[in-house]
Amino acid sequence: MALTPAAPLARPRWWPGGLAWALWALAVAGLAVVAWLDRLLRQTGRPELPVLTPKALPPALGWVSAAIVGAVLASRRPRHPVGWLLLALGLTVCASGLAYGYTNYGAAHPGAAPAAGLVAAYLPTTLVMVNIWLGFVLLLTPTGTLPSPGWRWWARVTVATLVALVVVVPLAAGPAGRLVGPVASPQDLHAFDGVLLVAYQAAMAVTNLALVAAAASLVVRFRRARGVERQQLRWVALATVVLALLIMVVVVALTQGAFALAGLTGSLCLLVLPVAVGAAVLRYRLYDLDRIISRTLADGLLTVLLGSAYAGVVLGLGRLLPQGSSLAVAAATLAVAAVFQPARRHIRQAVDRRFNRRHYDATETVEAFSARLRDQVDLDTLSAELLAVTDKTVQPTSASLWLRPQPPSRSADAAVARQRT
Question: H-type helices in 47-193, by residue range?
């Protein structure tokens, strides 16, 4: 009988991971180029030209977070398109910052930046591309496929919009482009008119509508999902709720003139979605989401209560003690330290009882079983109760219990031998 050699095991391909981290390095290197352009613009003495301003914090953080999460996803799940889309998102924001700085440098030094007019004509295209990448990320999360074949025409419309815009811009702006003066942001369309202005307005309207439709697709997918996919979508749903709350904070901060708070909150908005999408695709701690939420709420509530109590004790004793006395601070510190553990335990129990009911019920069930275990001696009853507790708390698809028989003792063996003799 002839023997055939065994087929060698297929080695994992290294190039997807290498390409993903190379694109990440390219996106990070763009930060250095933007910083260099910002230094050149600050030397012009015109305060409206620098790139790295407080308004640049949210895009920069979104740029870096999307690139990092995209590189991790693309290197670990190279066949999943979401990782590559997040990398494209980070590179697009990077290109937007570079084009913004290069355009303003060309406006400050006419003739010093080649093709600055054409770069200025293409600058709003980066905003359209950001909407497209975000829309595809929402459409393809978490499975990497569209929710149904009916969503294909949304994808085709968005891609066709980008292709048409890339073709129309050089035809409408001319080979040299248009560079009237410095631009305020990629959303600035004051330098455009005619066909180019209409093209940008139409492209932004289509991509914004597509982005809303992509967000609606998550609702449709969530209603149809079961099992692991439903748990994955819960991460994205949590990110959506957090985004809505952060956007409300941004709006309130802008109306009150707190621009620093608005910039910081906006940067958190751009950080939340890539992290949630990465956790959903990698299936990271899917079934611990309730515990994470409850712990976040409990620790936040504990911080607020203890901080308020600390401030109250310090202010109250400060009025009674002589000015400059450190006894108020010491007393407040001791009081907070004394109540920290009891308050933490009671707050966590209250939050688990309200927001993490499954974990709370499982804990109560296990504790009750442990109490009965001390008094129960019947092995069959214990086996049945153990299987019931496991099914109620862990909820496995199937469960079985195997008990190893104990070996007979030496005294029992000797008694059996005497009886036989």
Answer: 57-76, 81-108, 116-140, 152-173
pLDDT averages per 10-residue partition of the chain, 421 residues: 43 76 90 85 72 74 86 89 92 88 80 79 87 89 86 89 89 66 70 82 89 85 82 81 76 71 70 84 69 67 78 75 70 79 78 60 63 63 66 60 60 50 45
Burial of 97 (0-12, 13-18, 19+ CB in 10 A): buried
Domain range list for the chain: 15-284, 294-373
What gap in Å lies between CA 179 and CA 296, rounded to an integer? 50
Between CA 32 and CA 194, with CA 97 as vertex, the angle to 5 degrees is 155
Tokens encoding 167: 């073709």
Q: What is the pLDDT of residue 163?
A: 92
Cβ count near 230 (within 10 Å): 16
With b for 16 or more beta-carbon neighbours within 10 A and e for fewer, the 185-219 pattern comes to ebeeeebbeeebeebbeebbebbeebbebbeebbe
For residue 399, the surrounding DSSP H or E stretch is none
Return d(Cα 109, Cα 115) in angstroms, integer.
13
In contact, 65 and 271? CB cutoff 8 Å: yes
* Token representation of residue 146: 């569209």
Whole-number Å distance between alpha carbons of 337 and 390: 38
What is the reported pLDDT for 4?
44
For residues 337 and 271, is the Cβ–Cβ distance under 8 A?
Answer: no
**E strand residue ranges, 125-270:** none
Give residues with Cβ within 8 angstroms of 160, minimum separation 6.
none
Asked if residues 130 and 85 have their Cβ atoms less than 8 Å apart, the reply is no
CB atoms within 10 A of CB 70: 29
Residues in CB range of 261: below 8 A, 6 or more apart: 249, 253
The answer to whether residues 93 and 126 touch, using CB atoms and an 8 Å cutoff, is yes
The architecture in CATH of the region 15-284 reads: Up-down Bundle (1.20)
Report the pLDDT value the prediction gives residue 391, as an integer from 0 to 100: 63
Q: Which two tokens stand for residue 314?
A: 């310090």
pLDDT in tens, 202-220: 998 898 888 888 888 888 8
